[in-house]
Amino acid sequence: MDSQTLQITEDEAALYDRQIRLWGLEAQQRMRNSSILISGIRGLSNEVCKNLVLAGVGSVTIIDHNIVTEEDLGAQFLITEQDLGKNRALASANGVRHLNPRVVVKTDTDDIREKAEEFFENYDLICLTDSDPDTMIHVDRICRKYNKKFYSACTYGFFGYIFSDLNHHDYIQEKKTVVPGKEEPEITRLKKNEEFVSLETALSKNDWDQISVKKLNKISRVLWSVLILWKFQQEEKRLPTANEIDMTRLKSLKDSLFTSNNINVSTVTDEFLRTFTLSITAELSPVCAILGGILAQDILNTLSQRELPINNFFLYDGIEGSGVIYQVEPGKKIP
């Protein structure tokens, strides 16, 4: 990029005036110069693309090798019936461009699992949606090798998760102090940094028994369900269904998870595990909007280096209407 490309124009400053007032010109500049890869084009990523493009990021590349099916028409707003049979990325691109013509929108119809490592060097941040755990671990390893920011996320009906691995992340923390006699508080900006672990490391946590039973049973049941689901996917190379064979296997994986970690968790009942399994292929627009909004805002925080992003799991339970953040890694006692 040349120096002119790197600078926000007067038109852009006017367009993003409210954002610049909120988080400053420097933060907007960082977003303006960012290049983002979003993999998997479904309801969740539609919401993420919308929010990132409207915020004025530099460029977004959407990659998906799948074609549009009738099931995609339910929670997605970037495609129509006329797109049936077309590649998802190509079909969605124009809808993304229309949201903000100033943002460069690119497409890729390849399978991300077949991409060479060098492909990921072109991006500042990679976000995988609706991906399997093996692919997430593989791409996260590459992101760490090239010092790229990594996110993964998915919705499962009423439920969903976000995972972030930002490696070593620097950010600015604002502290407001009320000063007697002044209408506006004084703002102090402190430089902070945070260390993240890879998804592979997070999943290797085996010291759950160091957490009290009371605290274990306060951990979102969605976290345990996601861990069980991922183990099934790694072993079977597919998503489970609610048939008796798969449910028996999921229950066995649940028992193995808890037994191997010498813990007793009562929140993940067989009934809930079945409810969760029945939901995994469903897309609900409200859940996509909620999780997509949270994910996009966290990505913007990361790009702008304002505020501490999610470290490292966010779990959403739409039935209970709750969303919680857990730092899952060996040696950490989840509060």
Keywords:
335 residues; alpha/beta; Rossmann fold; eight-stranded mixed beta sheet; two-stranded antiparallel ribbon; 13 helices; globular; SUMO activating enzyme activity; nucleus
Structure, explained:
It holds the Pfam family ThiF. Pathway: Protein modification; protein sumoylation. It is found in: Nucleus. This protein has 335 residues and is α/β, with parallel strands linked by helices. The chain has 2 domains: 3-169 and 284-326, 3-Layer(aba) Sandwich (Rossmann fold), CATH 3.40.50; 203-279, no CATH class. The protein contains 13 helices and 10 strands. It has helices at residues 3-6, 10-15, 17-23, 25-32, 43-55, 88-99, 133-145, 199-203, 213-216, 221-236, 244-260, 270-279, 285-304, and strands at 35-39, 59-63, 104-108, 125-129, 149-156, 159-165, 168-177, 186-195, 313-317, 322-326. The strands form 2 sheets. The chain has an 8-stranded mixed sheet with strand order 3-2-1-4-5-6-9-10, sandwiched between helices. Helix 5 links the parallel strand 1 (35-39) and strand 2. The longest helix is centred in the C-terminal third of the chain and has 20 residues, at 285-304. The chain is globular and about 60 Å long. Mean pLDDT is 91; it is low at 1-5.
Give the helix level as a range of percent: 40-55%
Q: What's the helix count?
A: 13
Broad structural category: alpha/beta
What shape does the CA trace take? globular
Sheet having the most strands = 8 strands, mixed
Rg, nearest Å: 21 Å
Mean pLDDT: 91
- Which series of helices and strands comes N to C? HHHHEHEHEEHEEEEHHHHHHEE
Total separate domains: 2
**CATH architecture label name of the largest domain:** 3-Layer(aba) Sandwich
- Hey, roughly how much beta strand do the residues contain? 15-25%
The first-level CATH class name of the largest domain: Alpha Beta
- In the CATH scheme, what's the topology name of the largest domain? Rossmann fold
CATH homologous superfamily title of the largest domain: NAD(P)-binding Rossmann-like Domain
Strand numbers in spatial order across the main sheet: 3-2-1-4-5-6-9-10
Uncertain ranges: 1-5
Number of strands: 10
Give the N-to-C terminal Cα separation: 45 Å
Protein name: Ubiquitin-like 1-activating enzyme E1A
Pathway: Protein modification; protein sumoylation
GO cellular component, one term: SUMO activating enzyme complex
Main location: nucleus
